[in-house]
Amino acid sequence: MSESVDAATVRARLDSGPSPLLVDVRTPAEFESAHVPGAVNLPLDELDHHAGRVARDATEQIVLVCQSGSRAEQARRRLASSGLEDAVVLTGGMNAWAQAEGPTVHGPERWALDRQVRLVAGSTVLVAAAASLWWTPAVLLAAFVGAGLAFAAVTNTCGMAYLLSKLPHNRPTERVDVEASLARISRAGSRA
Predict the structure, then answer these.
(1) What's phi and psi for 121, nearest 5 deg?
(2) Mean pLDDT throughout 160-174?
(3) Do 22 and 39 contact (CB within 8 A), yes or no?
(4) CB–CB of 171/44 below 8 Å?
(5) 20 to 30 A Cα–Cα from 36, which one of 21, 27, 53, 108?
(6) How does pLDDT run across 15-33, given as a tens digit for each residue?
(7) Mean pLDDT within 3-15
(8) Which residues are CB-neighbours of 17 under 8 A, at least 6 positions away?
(9) What angle do CA 140, 142, 134 make, to 5 degrees?
(10) What are the Cα distances from residue 115, in Å, to 8, 154, 160?
(11) pLDDT at 190
(12) What pLDDT does residue 191 have?
């Protein structure tokens, strides 16, 4: 079985049935900004804590969604290691879904976390490089950011994104109800 599926295939399956269950692993604020209608929000850090339960209780195929596909792939691997082998990733995430003009529920506009990380990392390196013209040790700040980005790539985690997700503007107006999300996963339907 493939580990990913493109947006056109997901749209066709949603339209023709039986529909897969879409599980959006982005932060609640990202989910609130835009998501596929009917998707369940179970943020990646919460899925980490409940992967065994999701693997045990899932009643239909799960399509994992994030902004670009990276966090959804992390979620797929965690679910696979917990025994759920047939979960797949929406290739390209919400970016690809939007390009395919898939139906989307829109809320308050927020920048995606990966975009915020690029802004903060790029700005920090730019300021450090400029400051190093007058104060040489400032170049160490740029090196620190570069090392952090390399570490993020190797481990497929991002400490800066985690920290940015805790800022007030990245908080949703309502908290995600993890138990309700898990209940939707377990009662979503019968597997084909």
Answers:
(1) -65, -45
(2) 82
(3) yes
(4) no
(5) 53
(6) 887 789 999 999 888 899 8
(7) 92
(8) none
(9) 65
(10) 25, 19, 11
(11) 43
(12) 41
Residue 6 exposed, middle or buried by CB count within 10 Å (0-12, 13-18, 19+)? middle
Report cis status (omega within 30 of 0) of the bond before 18: yes
pLDDT at position 189 over 80: no
Of 113, 169, 124, 172, give the one whose Cα is nearest residue 146: 124
Q: Which pTM value belongs to this model?
A: 0.73
Q: Per-residue pLDDT tens for 131-153?
A: 999 999 999 999 999 999 999 88
HEC string of the chain equals: CCCEECHHHHHHHHHHCCCCEEEECCCHHHHHHEECCCCEECCHHHHHHHHHHHHHHCCCCEEEECCCCHHHHHHHHHHHHCCCCCCEEECCHHHHHHHCCCCCEECCCCCCHHHHHHHHHHHHHHHHHHHCCCCHHHHHHHHHHHHHHHHHHHHCCCHHHHHHHCCHHHCCCCCCCHHHHHHHHHHCCCCC
Closest Cα to residue 30, out of 88, 119, 103, 93? 93
Residue 187: the pLDDT is 65
Name all domains of the chain by residue range, CATH numbers in brackets.
Answer: 4-108+173-187 (3.40.250.10), 113-165 (no CATH)
Return d(Cα 21, Cα 10) in angstroms, integer. 10
